[in-house]
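Hi everyone,

Forwarding the result from last night's run.
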Amino acid sequence: MSNNTIQILIAMVIYMAAVIGIGIVYAKRANKNSEEYFLGGRSLGPWVTAMSAEASDMSGWLLMGLPGVAYWCGLADAAWTAIGLAVGTYLNWLLVSKRLRRYSIRANNSITLPEFFSNRFREKNKVIMFLAAAFILIFFTVYAASCFVTCGKLFSTLFGMPYVTMMLVGAVFVLLYTLLGGFLAESASDFMQAIVMIVALAVIVIISTVKAGGIGEVLENAKEIPGFLEFFGLATPVTNADGQQLVEAGKPVFGAAAPYGGLTICSMMAWGLGYFGMPQVLLRFMAIRKESELKRSRRIAMVWVVVSLAVAVFIGIVGRQLFPVEHLTKGGAENIFITLATSSLPAILAGFVMAGILAATISSSDSYLLIAASAFAKNVFQGICKKNATEKQVMWVSRITLLVLALIGILIALDEDSVIFQIVSFAWAGFGATFGPLMLFSLFWKRTTRAGAIAGMLSGAGMVFLWKLVISKLGGVFAIYELLPAFVFSCICIVVVSLLTKKPSKEIEEDFEAARTGAVDVP
């Protein structure tokens, strides 16, 4: 192992030690009871709420997946996705956060998303709770796999070790940390990791831009590639049968720019719809200590999101100039951030920047695993199977579930050629279409019925799989991102089934009005 590699390793070990320290600090409080472990006792301040929500949401794809898309095919895909995410973030904080904070308390002090939906409709046989928990288990396992892929790519690139070995090391670390501290530790570390992520992005984009000769030089180079710097065109790398981009005279080969029409823009912008169904973000709304602090949290979150997304996209653009033939596959392009960091900074500083990727990965994967485990332990085990389960039993089931989900995620992540962006996009669509429409209708349409809620979840999730695996293969207009048609279909099903079934009870309507007007006991 070279001296530079050792320095990078030392910096990352220091960072990981700090993360573990946070887990130890919060471990005692987290293990008092399930509410503390899963929701932190509704005690988050505005800064931690905002920063932890966005850090857990963005994950490793912000530093690897999004720059990789920009590096591979230019501005359009990455930029329109970023714009959609920024708009979705704002609308979610503006429309959902305050109402959900109130309603989750009114709905029998719900501490998980499945519990909220179940209590919202005052169901007795817990069908909604079971379905919501099941879908969380499915999609968060896929999400966790994407984080493990990020760990594997990061460590194998840095240390020259086999991908699978490094992926397993990262997965074990994430699992141990999540077992230790629970929601409070996760949120506190996510706050720190959000800072690390944005600092890492800023440092790399500034140094790389200077190294490339300034913004003008970067843009001029990008313009030489057909469609690379266009909002309404797409660069098309010319590849061989193995998906590797061709190189001629030391330069990557691109074909003519592909058209980028309104339908494709809608497809990328549809990423923003996913926010309405993201459990890791919605839980932060429920966990903030005061409803009045949500406005400040929204402002903090928006600044972080806009800056981070813009810088991540530009890193891919500048990376194509500095290292035009370094990454010749779509999956390999996701390593451009690592390449820029290790080539531009002293080894010890590069190590701390690399900790930014690790930060993004940990902040997301611990959220995913913890929420999935809580969905099973709290909502399936205690809510349905063993209603008299003790707090200790719930905690043990949660930890066993964490282990099982991590193992399944590891199996999914064994493929070294996995593309982080594609894995995340599928899980994102799953959550967005399964829970997004239901969340909006639950909060804002009093006529929504229990049957409509069930229909909305099943139709949204089912359409994501159907569109992704079958319909999208038809190409053309059907190649649109599966989240958009699945979201619309779920909305239609909720409305139609709700209107065809008996209106909600008086008690449910009273809950709705109390949450709408703020006439609930909100701290």
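The longest helix spans residues 163-211.

Cheers,
N.
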